[in-house]
Structures are given as structure tokens and as C-alpha cells.
Specification:
It is a single chain. The strands form 4 sheets. The chain has an 8-stranded mixed sheet. A 3-stranded parallel sheet has the order 13-14-15, with helices on both faces. Helix content is 28%, strand content 22%. With 323 residues, the chain is an alpha/beta fold. Bound molecules: succinic acid. The site of succinic acid has 12 residues, from loops.
């Protein structure tokens, strides 16, 4: 355990939500309680050492279904700022569960931090009779304080997941997340880490300097299903879409009518990527595929990867042309 600072960044979610009564776990309003107030309830928080060891910031206060690029940029800039401080050991970010996997993947793909950035959440509002948020926060703090930890992780219901693999798989139960075939990185047991595999690693993207002013490309997700056709793709092409992810059936198969429209989109310069809509496993590409495959990513994460790739390509071409 390190004596260095831990930074808490609040963004809202059910962990900061309130319901009309303490038994209500589904009809409530997310993002009502500030992150300072959530932390003040934790045991030992007010013992006098807190002010020295913890930095607390409310970066946003929203239901994560409404997450947008403006908040992502603000969050990424704050995370990058704190990661660059020598006296910071790690970060904890409170976030709603609904788009948590997207923000986690975005931060990992962009920053690939060598220090731990631990995202946590809750499935019950803060004023529930037995809320899950306080224990999740304590578990996240244990991970962020671990000097061996690195990368963006998600801590929920005692499990630690990697940003690339984690997915919300249940709309109600407390352990709402899974990492599919990859499994969790480990567990937090009585404040101690029981690790099963390596922390997330990788290389970030050289996008941070221009991130605040960068234009986000329009990348949409279309789904293949019985009776799918190309109408949505044709409408999106008219609307100026720059990238398309197709949530494909099984091992990346796409209805022939939808596939024809996607091939046409590619011929018009739109980037197209296939991801499987299966909740587990990864798509195995073959030489005869008409459309390129996303490397082991879910459709929502393949969309983020494609947006970042398009932003990087735009920033490199601007650098080359001196604009
Ligand atoms: C949200 O995602 O902000 C609301 C739902 C949740 O946190 O469980």
C-alpha cells in the first residue's frame, strides 16, 4: 500500500442516485449525490489523514445513459493531468453502470495508463437500505492503492475486470458485469487483492494534445438480424456518416441485403467494421470476408476504436499538411 495520493473523480450514476424510499432499487434518479458526500460516508474517511492522501473532484454529474463526447474529453483531460503528478499513486472514477464499459475502453485505448485508473459504480441508489456503492468504493480504493496495479479497470461486486473485456450483462443484480471468456483480473477480498491474471497494458494514442478541439467523427452501429436490409445504412450515408460498425450475427455473418449496402458504403469511403453481437467469444475472421472484422471487441467498443482511429488519421493528415 502506497502513501501517495489517490484521486477520486465523480461522474454520477446510480452510485450517486437517490430513490423515494430505501427499499426502491429500480425507480430512482441517478446522479444526485456529490462524490465528496459519497466518500464522507466511508469508514475512516474523516480521520484527519484524508485531506493529505485524497484529492476529490466532481468532473460531471449525469446518468451515464446520457454520456457524451464533451464529458469524455473533460474526464480524459483530468485523468491525464492527475496521472502526470509524481505524488499520485492512482485514480478512482465513480460512474453509472450503463455505459461504464464504453468510458473504461475509451480511457484505456486513449491513455493506456501505467498507473491504476479504477472505475466503480453501484446497482443500488446511495440511499438504499443496503447500498452496494460504499463497498465498491472501498474495493476500488484498494485496487487504486496497489503499487503493482496498472491500466483502466472496473471494480464491481468484489471483482476486478479489464477495460477491454468488461461488459454489463445484467440489468438488476449487484454483480452486473462479466469479462466473458477472459474472466476477471482478480477479486478484492477484505481489502486484499487476489489476482488471477495480468493488469491491462498497452500503448495510448498520441491524441491528447488536440483532444479538446478534435472533431468527433460520426460512427454509428447497425445490427444484422432476420429481415435486416440496407435502408438504415443508406439513410446514414445521406446523413454523412464516416464510420459504421455492424453488430453481426454469430461469427460475424451479415444479412446479404445489409451486407450489400455496407459494401457500397465502403466503396464510398466509409470505414466499416464487423463485430459479433454474441455476448461471449471473439469473431474469427476468414479470407473471404467482404467486411473487415473488429479484433475481439463488442460493437460499442469497436465503435470507439473506429472513432479514435479516424481521429488519429485526421490529426496525422493535419500535421502532414501543416493545418
Ligand atoms: C447510470 O448508468 O448512470 C444509471 C444506471 C447505473 O448506474 O446502474
Amino acid at each position: 500500500m502506497s502513501d501517495q495520493k489517490i484521486v477520486f473523480l465523480g461522474t454520477g450514476g446510480t452510485i450517486a442516485g437517490t430513490a423515494a424510499n430505501m427499499f426502491e432499487h429500480s425507480d430512482y434518479t441517478a446522479a444526485q449525490v456529490g462524490v465528496h458526500a459519497l466518500l464522507a460516508r466511508l469508514p475512516g474517511w474523516n480521520d484527519g489523514r484524508g485531506a493529505e492522501r485524497y484529492v476529490v473532484e466532481q468532473v460531471a454529474q449525469l446518468d451515464s445513459k446520457d454520456m457524451g463526447f464533451d464529458v469524455w474529453v473533460k474526464l480524459a483531460l483530468r485523468v491525464a493531468h492527475h496521472l502526470a503528478q509524481d505524488d499520485v499513486q492512482g485514480l478512482v472514477i465513480t460512474h453509472g453502470t450503463d455505459t461504464l464499459e464504453e468510458t473504461a475502453y475509451f480511457l484505456q485505448a486513449l491513455l493506456a495508463p501505467a498507473k491504476p485508473v479504477v472505475m466503480t459504480c453501484a446497482m443500488r441508489p446511495a440511499n438504499a437500505l443496503v447500498p452496494d456503492g460504499p463497498q465498491n468504493l472501498l474495493d476500488a480504493l484498494a485496487v487504486a492503492s496497489n503499487t503493482g496495479a496498472s491500466g483502466v479497470t472496473v471494480v464491481c461486486a468484489g471483482a476486478i475486470y479489464g477495460a477491454v473485456d468488461v461488459q454489463k450483462v445484467h440489468p438488476y443484480r449487484l454483480n452486473a458485469f462479466s469479462a466473458g471468456d477472459a474472466g476477471p483480473i482478480g477479486f478484492v477480498e477484505q481489502g486484499r487483492l487476489h489476482l488471477l491474471r495480468d493488469w491491462p497494458r498497452g500503448n495510448g494514442l498520441p491524441l491528447m494534445s488536440g483532444l479538446a478541439d478534435a472533431a468527433w467523427p460520426r460512427v454509428e452501429i447497425v445490427m444484422s438480424y432476420a429481415g435486416a436490409d440496407g435502408a438504415v445504412v443508406r439513410a446514414l450515408l445521406k446523413a454523412g456518416v464516416q464510420g459504421l460498425v455492424v453488430a453481426a450475427t454469430g461469427n460475424g455473418t451479415v444479412h446479404q441485403d445489409l451486407e450489400a449496402a455496407l459494401v457500397l458504403a465502403m466503396q464510398q469511403g466509409v470505414k466499416v467494421v464487423r463485430a459479433t453481437r454474441c455476448t461471449e467469444g471473439r469473431l474469427l475472421p476468414s479470407v473471404n470476408d467482404a467486411l473487415p472484422a473488429a479484433a475481439g471487441l463488442t460493437p460499442v467498443k469497436a465503435r470507439i476504436a473506429l472513432m479514435l482511429a479516424l481521429m488519429q488519421a485526421a490529426s496525422m493528415s493535419a500535421a502532414e499538411t501543416g493545418r
